[in-house]
Design brief:
Elements lengths: L1 H9 L1 H35 L10 E4 L8 H6 L3 E3 L1 H33 L14 H13 L1
Antiparallel strand pairs: 1-2
């Protein structure tokens, strides 16, 4: 059983998947920073300076007016954090678009690599081997 496990781990697909997961985790951190540090300020600009990630409704509990989402959660209130959900959707859309662009690029590179080289134009061919043999036969028959 241990040998089977070693064989399974040694296969290329498992190693590729592990590398993909590690790169994906790092990529998620980059996209999260992109959204939080670069996109959210623009969204706030269009919404009148509102910090979109802190938008929420208090479902139950006492929360001071104007408190941040983090303060409301620390106070133990049940909150409906729709702003955080919207930002998660924006994160997902950005990640999906970037992954789409990467896959598209890889597919184009693969297609270019698999494309057979254009066949060189053939030189004008003379008579076929069969034609030559038939000429020899005919000349011997004379």
């Amino acid at each position: 059983m241990l040998n089977e496990f070693k064989d399974f781990i040694a296969k290329g697909n498992v190693m590729d998947m592990a590398v993909g997961i590690i790169i994906g985790a790092a990529f998620t951190a980059i996209v999260s920073s992109l959204v939080a540090d670069l996109i959210n300020p623009f969204i706030g600009l269009f919404t009148g300076g509102i910090d979109f990630t802190n938008m929420y409704f208090v479902l139950s509990g006492d929360v001071a007016a104007g408190a941040s989402l983090e303060a409301a959660r620390e106070a133990g209130a049940a909150v409906f954090a729709y702003g955080a959900f919207v930002m998660a959707i924006i994160n997902f859309l950005i990640i999906a678009f970037v992954v789409f662009m990467l896959v598209r690029s890889v597919n184009k590179i693969k297609a270019a690599a698999e494309k057979p080289e254009e066949a060189a134009p053939e030189a004008e061919s003379g008579p076929s081997e069969l034609d030559i043999l038939m000429e020899i036969r005919d000349s011997l028959a004379k």
